[in-house]
Write a structure and sequence with these properties.
This protein is of the alpha+beta class. Helices cover 38% and strands 33% of the residues. The chain has one domain: Aminopeptidase, CATH 3.40.630.
C-alpha cells in the first residue's frame, strides 16, 4: 500500500542520495546538486519551517519518494507542490499517482488550502501525465524559465483548486482503492 508519513531524521541521508540520482535530479529546477551542508540546511528547513511541509511517500512501509508543499503561510491559502519517486523500483507502478491523491487529501482536507500549483519541466512526460491523471490543469507555459546544467528549460505550470478536488476526490480514491494501491 502507498501511504504518506511525516519526514523523520532518518530520512535525511536517503533524500540526499535520491536527490543526487540522475533520474531524479534531471527534473529538479535546482541549478546544481546541493552540497551535503546545503542539503542538511534544506532538510532542517523542511522539518522546522511552518511555511513548508514534507511527507515521505512509502510503499509497504518502505520510503520510496517525497512530496512537499511550500508557501503554506500565504494568506492566499495556496502552496507550491513538489514531488518525486526516488526509488527506481517504485517508478511506473502507480506510486506517483497514489501519492498525488494522498497529497491532495492532505492539502485540501487537512490543511484547508484553496489551491496547489506546480512547475514541471516541459519534457517530463511522466510527471505531466500523472498530475493530469489526478486532475491538475495546465495553467501556463514558461519558456526558458529555469537553467539546468547551464541550459534554459521550459516549464509547464499546473494547478488544482479545492472545489476541483472535491469533485474528483471520490472517483480518484475509489480507483486506487480497487487497484489496492491505497487504503479505503
Amino acid at each position: 500500500m502507498i501511504e504518506l508519513r511525516d519526514i523523520a531524521d532518518e530520512d535525511e541521508e536517503r533524500l540526499y542520495r535520491w536527490r543526487g540520482e540522475p533520474e531524479v535530479s534531471r527534473w529538479m529546477s535546482d541549478a546544481d546538486f546541493p552540497s551535503e551542508l546545503d542539503h542538511r540546511r534544506w532538510f532542517q528547513t523542511l522539518r522546522d519551517d511552518p511555511d513548508m511541509h514534507g511527507w515521505m511517500i512509502t510503499r509497504d512501509d518502505a520510503p520510496v519518494g517525497l512530496l512537499t508543499l511550500t508557501g503554506l503561510s500565504s494568506h492566499h491559502r495556496r502552496a507550491a507542490w513538489n514531488w518525486f519517486v526516488g526509488d527506481a523500483d517504485a517508478r511506473g507502478r502507480g506510486v506517483g499517482r497514489a501519492a498525488q491523491v494522498l497529497g491532495l487529501e492532505r492539502a485540501f482536507c487537512d490543511l484547508k488550502l484553496h489551491k496547489v500549483w506546480s512547475e514541471v519541466m516541459a519534457d517530463n512526460d511522466a510527471a505531466l501525465k500523472v498530475q493530469a491523471a489526478v486532475g491538475f490543469r495546465r495553467e501556463g507555459y514558461l519558456r526558458g524559465h529555469v537553467l539546468k546544467d547551464g541550459q534554459p528549460r521550459d516549464v509547464v505550470l499546473l494547478g488544482m483548486l479545492a472545489e476541483e478536488w472535491s469533485a474528483l476526490r471520490e472517483g480518484a480514491r475509489q480507483t486506487l482503492t480497487e487497484a489496492r494501491l491505497i487504503h479505503a
